[in-house]
Amino acid sequence: MKNKLYDMPIYMDYSATTPVDPRVAEKMIPYITEDFGNPASRSHPYGWTAEKAVEDARKEVALLVNADPREIIWTSGATESNNLAIKGASNFYSKKGKHIITLATEHKAVIDAVRECERIGYEATYMEPEPNGLLDIEKFKSTIRPDTVLVSVMLVNNEIGVIQDIITIGNICRENNIIFHVDAAQATGKVKIDLETLPVDLMSFSAHKTYGPKGVGALYVRRKPRIRIEPQMHGGGHERGMRSGTLATHQIVGMGEAFKIAREEMDEENNRIKNLQAKLLKGLTEIDETYVNGDLDKRVPHNLNISFNYVEGESLIMAIKGIAVSSGSACTSASLEPSYVLRALGRSDELAHSSIRFSIGRFTTESDVEFTIALLKEKIDKLRDLSPLWEMFQDGVDLEKVEWAEH
Amino acid sequence: MIYLDNNATTALHPEVLKEMLPFLTVQQGNPASNHKFGRNAHTAIEEAREKVATSVNAHPSQVIFTSSGTESNNTIINGIAKAYPDSHFGFSSIEHPCISEPIKSLANQGFKVSEIPVDSNGIFNVSNISTEIKQSLSFLSVMMANNETGVIQNIAGIADWARENKIQFHTDAVQALGKIKVDFEALDIDAMTISSHKIYGPQGIAALIVNKKIDLFPYMQGGGQERGLRSGTENIAAIIGFGKACERSSQNRVVFKERIGFLKSTLEKALVDLDAVIFCEKSHRLSNTTFFSFKNIDGSTLLTALDRKGFAIASGSACSSNSTEPSHVLLSMGVDLDLAQGALRVSLGVENTENEINDFMDTLKDEVNRLKQLTAVAA
Questions:
Q1: Do residue A44 and residue B5 have CB atoms under 8 angstroms apart?
Q2: A236–B36: do the CB atoms touch at under 8 Å?
Q3: Residues of A forming the active site
Q4: Hey, are the CB atoms on A234 and B68 less than 8 Å from each other?
Q5: Cα–Cα distances in Å, from B246 out to A10, A380, B252, B359?
Q6: How far is the alpha carbon of B365 from chain A, nearest alpha carbon, in Å?
Q7: pLDDT (tens digit, 9 = 90+) per residue, B42-65?
Q8: Is B288 exposed, middle or buried, given 0-12, 13-18 or 19+ CB atoms closer than 10 A?
Q9: Residue A82 with chain B: CB contacts under 8 Å
Q10: Which residues have a Cβ under 8 Å from the Cβ of A265 and sit 6 or more positions away?
Q11: B292 phi and psi angles, rounded to 5 deg
Q12: If phi over 0 gives left and psi between -120 and 50 gives alpha, with beta otherwise, what is residue B316?
């Protein structure tokens, strides 16, 4: 999707954020203009209209993931949902124990919320995934302790797009009486989620990763068996006391509509995106010395994360300004640290540094993909022509064994 | 339907909507992304931050965007509790639940907590703080203007007192912004809460203004946005709307002072003629808020009758109007339970006209007289 108005690059960064679907924006606007009421106002129709819109949206969110609307709590985004789930559940069930298990490749919002629990006296295990990005079930089982109170594993990884086996992980949690939280911010509209059958207790959602607006998310809190969380925000008692604060009606309406569209169109859309992914993969792996990060089968079609060997990461990003992509997660791409996710997969610093996340979506076209392939081929050729390392590699020098002289 | 419940939420101003729309419809990046989409989003947010800062005379670096006034208040309370574990928290008895509830929940964690009463006029007085409380008090929160009574506190005086006694001071200025002058720098306080949807901006966005003199422990962890004090992808469209609403707030202040203030006094004269009790009548109040009650008339009956005639008003605060609890603000002022139970609030907005208020007064007279007769017959 080329934005001609501002001569913008082609957007290949759908995992950082998605554009608001025009149908979503259209549905939102009446709720910031004529139907502007506070949904907590019970004394007049302005409040009632807003409240009804909020409840209709709640139904839509619940429908996408096959949950009861009463199990959906509105939040300001997945970061808040993750914080609320992790701190709220570990606090409430702290009598069982104070050990938390999560993955080293989780989103910062999960990792840092768990770190905050550590600060107040919990113990945490950050499991390293296998080189393909997936959690080894046997290793997971052996990490569980009698005092493990909470496990948090994301459904779809934001950087490498791999899908974890949350059914198996969830069943193990059930057997061991452990609360299971799943960050599904990157999963909605990409993989089928059926909370009626999934052994999941808490699940985080975001609107702006699924063509909804920024600033709104939700937390699923299971009712049967009933899961309890300690609220993290107090005052007003909105959302059955679990999350206070005036509800942003138009944003909630936007999330509802976005999730409705996802439910109705995801099968067809994913087929189309799968074909684009195959095309992109084929084109990019025609380039020598490329490494796909993360399992290719257990992966959403929207993501390809590829390391280009013998190219310097920063120069690569500078060279491909015609497309908007991310190196590492958007939330941390302001720093030059190599992605902690790729390092957890055992990638060298060099390969982690020269990795690009291509994430495609609803408005990506075939010609966007063709442009991307051609651009990468051209620029990588150019950069490698200038690279002494590439030359040495071509001459058959084993770079691992080279002893570099100090100057 | 005539909307007279502007302290609950306000209608978005068309100019605000106009600025927001491109950020909802045209492709927008994640402000944390390094490509052009991301950088454009980032620049837009920083421009809005400047507008917000200017409207309250603060530095842009002191503005932390949050998702609501409730979140801002929870952030300051919990952030102080974590950064200063020996804190003793004080708050006025008329604070919004999003100040009193987080503080009360800290009491369960072993923090010392003191609720400080207001007088019968709804005014907070530092002389009501006992010497014993004063000795260990380290944090105080007093709202600038009350959402129910509209009473404006002497924040400058309270802030001076707090500074002299080395007490951290926070004010919830959610209801004050856009109605009276709010000057963070002149007040010289540690923290302040403001919110967008009370000043004709969108819901879902607010700010905590923090003086860097205090350490604040982040309340949510994650991507480290807002100088690490508030993680989570920024709500761009809403931030842009909030910026515009703040920019317009000084214009609104003039409207409130002149036109709306006049409408309110006309309304209050009519209420007094009908034998209504106007709460905090003699106190310095916001020019848009009237909180009143009729002896011997059931408030909820009157509210329903007015609603049927097309007037949207409130009983107590919107956040608690789904409960039948009488206003905690009135009870803490020592108002009779019966009178408090029947309390109704009219809160005017910049759009309200003289005709609307005249219609409202006519209807109110009819309904009050009808209900008085019914009550008399029943008795």
A1: yes
A2: no
A3: 331
A4: no
A5: 34, 48, 10, 31
A6: 20
A7: 999 999 999 999 999 999 999 999
A8: buried
A9: 222
A10: none
A11: -145, 170
A12: left
Output the DSSP codes for A265-294: HHHHHHHHHHHHHHHHHHHHHTSSSEEE-S
User: Which residues of chain A have a CB within 8 Å of the CB of B27?
Assistant: 1, 3, 8, 11, 19
3-state secondary structure of B140: strand
Interface test with A, best of B221, B225, B231, B302 (most A CBs within 10 A): B221
Beta-bridge mates of residue A292: A306
For B162-190, how does the pLDDT look when each residue is reduced to its tens digit (9 = 90+)?
999 999 999 999 999 999 999 999 999 99
From A299, A296, A218, select the one nearest A258 (Cα to Cα).
A218
Yes or no: say if A102 and A114 are a contact pair by the CB < 8 Å rule.
Answer: yes
Extract the runs of DSSP E, i.e. beta strands, from A284-349. Answer: 290-292, 303-308, 323-324
Cβ–Cβ contact A330 with B under 8 A:
yes
From CA B284, how far away is CA B261, in angstroms rounded?
12
Q: Which of A108, A213, A215 sits opposite B223 (nearest CB)?
A: A108
Partner A, chain B 134-173, Cβ-Cβ below 8 Å: none
CA distance to partner chain B, nearest, from residue A332 (Å): 7
Task: In whole angstroms, give the CA distance from residue A76 to residue B75.
Answer: 14
Q: Which of A41, A76, A249 sits opposite B318 (nearest CB)?
A: A41
Q: Please name which of A138, A82, A135, A137 lies closest in space to residue A104, comparing C-alpha atoms.
A: A135
Flag whether pLDDT at B318 surpasses 50.
no
Q: What is the ipTM of this complex?
A: 0.84
Q: Per the CB < 8 Å rule, is B67 touching A248?
A: yes
> Are B41 and B28 a contacting pair, CB within 8 Å?
yes
Shortest Cα distance, chain B CAs vs residue A139, angstroms: 27
Structure-token pair, residue B226: 């807002």
d(CA B158, CA A88): 35
Query: In the numeric block, which tokens belong to residue B338?
Result: 């019966």
pLDDT digits (tens, 9 = 90+) for B80-137: 999 999 999 999 999 999 999 999 999 999 999 999 999 999 999 999 999 999 999 9
- Identify the pLDDT of residue A328: 53
Cα–Cα distance, B20 to A254 (Å, whole number)? 14
Sort A298 into a burial class: Cβ within 10 Å, 0-12 / 13-18 / 19+: middle
Hey, what are A245's tokens? Answer: 């604060």
Amino acid at B85: P
CA-based torsion, A54, A56, A61, A66: positive or negative? positive
Q: What residues of B are in contact with residue A49 (Cβ under 8 Å)?
A: none
Q: What is the pLDDT of residue A94?
A: 95
CB contact at 8 A, A29 and A20: no
Closest C-alpha to A103, from A60, A64, A159: A159
pLDDT, residue B146, reads: 97
Chain A nearest-CA residue for B26: A19
Q: Is B319 a catalytic residue?
A: yes
- The catalytically annotated residue of B98, B246, B280, B319 is B319
Q: Taking a C-beta distance cutoff of 8 angstroms, is the pair B218, B292 a contact?
A: no
Q: What is the pLDDT of residue A262?
A: 98
CA distance B275 to B304: 20
> DSSP for B183-250?
-HHHHT-SEEEEESTTTTS-SS-EEEEE-TTS----SS-SS-TTTTTS-S---HHHHHHHHHHHHHHH
The two structure tokens encoding residue B266: 């006309």
Average pLDDT over residues A331-352: 75
Sort out which chain B residues have CB atoms less than 8 A from A244's CB and list them: 70, 74, 97-98, 101
Mean pLDDT for chain B overall: 93
CB of A6 less than 8 A from some CB of B = yes
**Does the beta carbon of B186 lie under 8 angstroms from any beta carbon of chain A?**
no
